[in-house]
Amino acid sequence: MQGTVDSQPAASTATAAHHHEEHPDLRVLGLITFLASEFLMFCGFFAVYLIYRSALAEWPPEETEVELLLPAVNTVILVSSSLVIHWGDTAIKQGDVAGLRKWYIVTALMGTVFLGGQIYEYATLGYGLRTNLFSNCFYLMTGFHGLHVFIGLLLILGVLWRSRRPGHYNANKHTGVEMAEIYWHFVDIVWIVLFTLIYILTLF
Amino acid sequence: MAQANLSPEATKTPPIEGHPHLPDWKWYDYFTFNIDHKVIGIQYLVLAFIFYLIAGLMAVAMRTELATPDSDFMDPSLYNALLTNHGTIMIFLWIVPAAIGGFGNYLVPLMIGARDMAFPKLNALAFWLNPPAGALLLGSFLFGGAQAGWTSYPPLSVITANTAQSMWILAVVLVGTSSIMGSVNFLVTIWKMRVPSMKWDQLPLFCWAMVATSFLALFSTPVLAAGLILLLFDINFGTGFFQPDAGGNVVVYQHLFWFYSHPAVYLMILPIFGIMSEVIPVHARKPIFGYKAIAYSSLTISIVGLFVWVHHMFTSGTPPWMRIFFTISTLIVAVPTGIKIFSWVATLWGGKIRFTSAMLFAVGLLSMFVFGGLSGVTLGTAPFDIHVHDTYYVVGHFHYVLFGGSVFGIYAGIYHWFPKMTGRMLNETLGRLHFVLTFIGTNLTFAPMHELGMQGMPRRVAMYDPQFVGLNQLATIGAFTLGISVLPMLINVIWSWSRGPKAGGNPWNALTLEWTTPSPPPVENWTILPAVTHGPYEYGVGIQPPQPDQPALDEA
């Protein structure tokens, strides 16, 4: 707090940060801060799940066993889509809009397949939200994650819609692309924790 | 910080996209969707103050009921609804939005030499989540009102579940969302948008407090959201997360709730500590004592504050090891808080104190908050807490902290920054009258509650044993005094805003950056950005405070 004499008042080189919303650093930093907060909300759910899992002798109860094959396939699809979306981001950083569009379309398809798989799983499980405490947790947590996948899909579709305009994204201007990618990775990371908690750990 | 160095080579920054470039604010600009941080700050303050008056009237109605032991003034279920909404509105729609949304939005960009917040549109959106939240809470009275208390513990909140309880949940989730948006905005703004010559150790202490507050809100609010979503599902969709007969556990809700709601008390006091650190050195004409100690203690409070929530649950069947851990962590929070108190006292020591209304409230806050802090230490100790749990002792304690602390701090902030916000001075005589009435009212209302609690009067009830009647009537007289105390302030603000004497750019001769621009500041705050040439609190060492009304500033 000792006053430093700054002989270079508000140096003109350092004004980039004052460009406001258009400045990529600000938006990416804002998104990451927000996602940290979102993650804490999921941590609340994880904590509730773990408390009940440790408190009850039989988990999951017999009438609410989880299916493993479909979610495992779904997991592979979602995790690899994180790689695919990254290829799209790499493409636009080299100025390749066609590449961006191609990989983002593939990602969107993979995300749709994931959501479709989740809906199919819900329809075939034979128990519902109210069956017991396990099914409460199961549907609420996977459902909330599904909602986030859906939001991620909307972001990707938004990027695809905007990329139709020539020059909207280019090698130097791709913050929106990057933000959709970061969000998609976030959805992926949450799913890995969820899959481990709900599906893998029920094997033991 | 701040002497403005208004040399011609100082930076001109490009205008902000979407900013209205009005020559002057009109009154109706404050009622529109505006993305200027100063308008949003004032919108927050005014809306919060309206809710303060509403929730205050609820309190007066409750104290009227409590003037007699019987339930003869109102129906007990109405009492419960008033109790629930009084707490909820005071916390979520008055103190938090006024301290964080109001002062934070108004002051942070001005204090760090920025033209606006990092995300102006997000900022406006965060504000506009508040009116619907308030409408949900007040509208819930049409459906009987949420009656499970501001904590809304299950199973009560589920058994008595009605539309109003769900409206309560949605309202709290809305303000929580608003608070998360605001926190993201503050962190990015303070991190990235300081004027280039401002180093971290020249950041005004109010901004340090906002950093600590934002971290805390960012990490604790979503956990409350998780808990409330589960509660919403229990009420409306038949799940059993907190239903013992379905295998759920009510204490799990308490953990999720207090993981946010204990830190929420720091959300309500950390910005106030920031206001104190700005008001005291200016009006005592002395450099603040222990700048770094105050800055770091804010961060310490926000970190330790995340690990103390179980002290609200000592009587919830908490195992002894947990009681020991959370007693100790709770007592540790008193250390950084004490550091701040002693720093302010040391700043006052030997200062050339000007007893302006702002300073009166700041000094009043010191005494009230020390009292509330000490009763907090007693409550944080498990053995004593078990004795007085859910009695009026608790009510007395948290009202000393929240009214004697947070509300006094907001008042101090209003008297200090009103000239900057409106360009007009407040009337000092009315200000002193306001202070005297508030100070007497606070002590008359909340001091007897400690004794009532020690004698065993339970909280949250409309009827009580006749043996408690004397002290209750004292508290009721105090509550009416507090109700009346708002009037001189209201008259003062309304009259001075239109007719008060012109303030000039820097009426208090302060050194932080917000005083280097005219009052009220123009859109985008400065024609040319100021440069930081010395620390923010170097009073009495020969630095001339900036007088931005001199025409040099507006030209260029």
UniProtKB/TrEMBL annotation, chain A:
Q: Which organism is it from?
A: Halomicronema hongdechloris C2206
**Annotated transmembrane regions:** 28-52, 103-120, 140-161, 182-201
Under PROSITE patterns, the record lists: COX3
GO MF assignments? cytochrome-c oxidase activity; oxidoreductase activity
Which ranges carry the Heme-copper oxidase subunit III family profile domain?
1-203
Its principal location?
membrane
Protein's name in the database: Oxidase aa(3) subunit 3
GO biological process, alphabetically ordered? aerobic electron transport chain
| InterPro entries given in the database record | Cyt_c/ubiquinol_Oxase_su3, Cyt_c_oxidase-like_su3, Cyt_c_oxidase_su3-like_sf, Cyt_c_oxidase_su3_a-hlx
Record's subcellular location? Cell membrane
Keywords of the record: Cell membrane, Membrane, Oxidoreductase, Transmembrane, Transmembrane helix
Give the protein family: Belongs to the cytochrome c oxidase subunit 3 family.
Q: Which Pfam families does the UniProt record give? A: COX3
Q: How does it sit in the membrane?
A: Multi-pass membrane protein
Naming one, the record's GO cellular component terms include: plasma membrane
TrEMBL record, chain B:
Alphabetical list of SUPFAM superfamilies matching this protein: Cytochrome c oxidase subunit I-like
Q: What class of enzyme is it?
A: translocase
Annotated Cytochrome oxidase subunit I profile domain residues: 21-533
* Listed InterPro entries: Cyt_c_oxase-like_su1_dom, Cyt_c_oxase-like_su1_sf, Cyt_C_Oxase_1, Cyt_c_Oxase_su1_BS, Cyt_c_oxidase_su1_bac
Subcellular location per UniProt equals: Cell membrane; Membrane
Tell me, in one coarse class, where this protein mainly resides. Answer: membrane
What is the topology of this protein in the membrane according to its UniProt annotation? Multi-pass membrane protein
State the EC number(s): 7.1.1.9
Q: Which pathway?
A: Energy metabolism; oxidative phosphorylation
Provide the GO biological process annotations: electron transport coupled proton transport; oxidative phosphorylation; respiratory electron transport chain
Q: Which residues form the signal peptide?
A: none
Q: Which PANTHER family match?
A: CYTOCHROME C OXIDASE SUBUNIT 1 (PTHR10422)
As for what it does, the entry says: Cytochrome c oxidase is the component of the respiratory chain that catalyzes the reduction of oxygen to water. Subunits 1-3 form the functional core of the enzyme complex. CO I is the catalytic subunit of the enzyme. Electrons originating in cytochrome c are transferred via the copper A center of subunit 2 and heme A of subunit 1 to the bimetallic center formed by heme A3 and copper B.
Protein's name according to its UniProt entry: Cytochrome c oxidase subunit 1
Gene symbol? ctaD
